[in-house]
Amino acid sequence: MELTLWGMMFRGMVVALTVISGGLVFGEPVVPGLGSKHPLTMGQEGKVLVGELRCAACHEGIGEAGMKSAPDLRSVGSRVSGDYLKRYLSDPHGTHPGTTMPDVLAGLPAGEKKVVSEAISHYLMSLTGSGEKEEVKVGDAKRGGEVFHEVGCVACHSPRDSEGKEMSLKGVISLAHVGEKYHGGELANFLGDPLKVRPSGRMPDMNLSSGEAAALEAYLGGGKKVSEKPIPDQVNLGKAYFEKFNCVACHEMGEARAQMGPKLAEMDLLKGCLTGKAADYDLSEGQKKAITVALEKPVTLSDADRVKVHLTQMNCISCHVRDDFGGVTERLDGYFHTTEEGLGNEARIPPPLTKVGGKLKPEWMNKVLYDGLSVRPYMKTRMPQFGREALNGLPELLAKVDEMAGVELPPPGREERPMVSNGGHLLLGETGLNCITCHNYNGKESPGMKGLDLITSYQRLQPGWFYEFMKNPGAHRPGIIMPSYWPDGKAVQTEILGGDTHEQLRALWYQFSLGRSARDPKGLRSEPNKLVVTDKVRVYRGRSRVAGYRGIAVGYPGGMNYAFNAKNGSLTGIWKGEFVTANWRSQGAGDFNPAERSVNLAQDVAFLQLKNESDKWPLRPVTSKEVPVNPDPLYPKNHGYAFKGYSLDEGGNPTFIYHCGEIRIEDRSESKEGRLLQRKFKFTSKEGGTIYFRALTGKVTMESASSFATPELRVRTGGAKALLRDSKTGGGKELLIKLPVAKGETTYTIDYELLR
Description:
Layout: E1 3-10, E2 13-20, E3 23-26, H1 42-52, H2 76-79, H3 82-90, H4 92-95, H5 110-125, H6 141-150, H7 186-192, H8 194-197, H9 210-219, H10 232-244, H11 285-296, H12 303-313, E4 321-322, E5 325-326, H13 330-333, H14 356-359, H15 362-371, H16 388-391, H17 394-401, H18 417-428, H19 457-460, H20 463-471, H21 473-476, H22 501-513, E6 530-531, E7 538-544, E8 548-555, E9 560-565, E10 570-576, E11 580-582, E12 592-594, E13 599-600, E14 607-608, H23 635-638, E15 641-648, E16 654-660, E17 663-671, E18 676-685, E19 689-698, E20 701-704, E21 707-709, E22 713-716, E23 721-726, E24 733-741, E25 744-754
Antiparallel strand pairs: 1-2, 2-3, 4-5, 6-11, 7-8, 8-9, 9-10, 10-13, 11-12, 14-19, 15-16, 16-17, 17-18, 18-25, 19-24, 20-21, 21-22, 22-25, 23-24
Helix pairs in contact: 1-11, 3-5, 5-10, 6-9, 7-9, 12-17, 18-22
């Protein structure tokens, strides 16, 4: 049963709500981008609504630029059931909440409305096109649920619970109606090539296989076989009504021509569609106000504004961040997945669009936007194909708005070519910067994590963007696990090309330009899997039983080693002796385990801003056979933790950078004589405050006011207030250190001493 409720207040606006299958769904027209963190003014928002609602189809002077095209109805009878058409025409907003199609029959008495909608439905049923139909494939509904929640459908449509019910309300396009809308197999056909019917690109092509499309149809409740025949007399009457009620203003149908309404200069906004007295769009008060602002004073857009409008209109900002707007919300974060967990968020979250026009070469941007080219096979969310009509000059506009200063990286001359080529080759390999241990190279898989193929860099990137990104990766992708090898413009690797930053980056650029002819860097092929620390600090990234999916192992000359969990921000293991063994035979990335027995510490978040000393310490969620799904996928983020990457000094020693709420933490360790690891923190805060550090758990005993120990490890707290208490969330004790953080910078040091 469907029931429309009027007069409910939401954030001060009167909106229409619809009850469907027990859940509330907003009935006002939905433009998903406007429900995201968009950057538009009210006038610009109104301009988007004017385009999405096709106001210019009936009113001259509004401007057709950016207007969404309506679905192609020339074969709609082959796809959509007659019963659905009849209900939809009679009550568009009740049948499909959030639709942008108006109720053009709103002014008719109920009896007449029923007659007209039924007749038009018969006319549309008669439009079946031509051609043989493919055999209907029966899809796997379980697989369909997986596809729906991982390829990106949830950017515009509500995620569903375990029973298949929609979970969201505001700002998403409901799909509760599709199970009753399509003939058997037709939803799958539509999903396989949506731009054929809807060239506007608002429903983009998600590059689905036929099996995936069939699985989605099964999951969404489609696949019903319906046998319906239109009645000839009703068909003729429906065709006449289709023209009479001006449906042809949006849907081309033969030679019929639209009846135009008043021009913009002659419009009375108090009498037209905004009031529901003409075509009823079921607009909210906020939408009416935005449209009124846009129509009363024409909105002039700069090129930068046009980019903002375009990205909002196509809802690119649901997956991508640009400048200070857009990005994946906490509500959707858990639906973005990757096959390379160790690469962190950059392997699962679509890349930022900030300066993307200055980042990508025009020909590559066209390949991505128009041809669906992808260099991130590990990312499960797919880049939609919006089609030429929807993109309409966007690549050129981005290139114009995002233009960056060029950097000269000329290919070497004949005499210097061997030196430059050899320098780039060495930098990529294991004795240089270890790039190939996190990245595929020239079509060959990395022995570690399978990051995007580096050899595509020259094809994809503008040299200026490449140059700036390499000097400071974290500034372009906050939280990236790639370290800065040229901090403050100075090369960490000083033995190659004289440590000249410009020449090293030029050498890498030249190496990438060689394409398929480039030599394989050292380490890309098989090497012994026991990694050895020599005269410099060695860093190895990958997943580990002692440090989780985003583990980082650090080994010092002299045999002191530790492991850091970058996902939760905790030092999780300390050992003495040999460094690590890796499942993949290389250094840099892959499964690793300490080569000696490690003293293991908690992998929960290490810093918190507790309200008081008695608060429980939240433990990281652990999946098991009984609990196969992570109950708190945003665990570290929910408790204020955010990893911001790390940098290496000249000796290769890393400084980890992360946040506890608004407090920035720089975390660097050093190996001291014997079995001592000294850990130094620098806190930076705008306001100051107090944070708690959970330094030790388990069988902890107090030796003095500043010394605490387990049977295997001693911790010296450095004089800060220490609280040893019974663990409130697990067995044993836990040592909390209360750290007052001043406005500006505060430093703190803690020592770890191995006792075995």
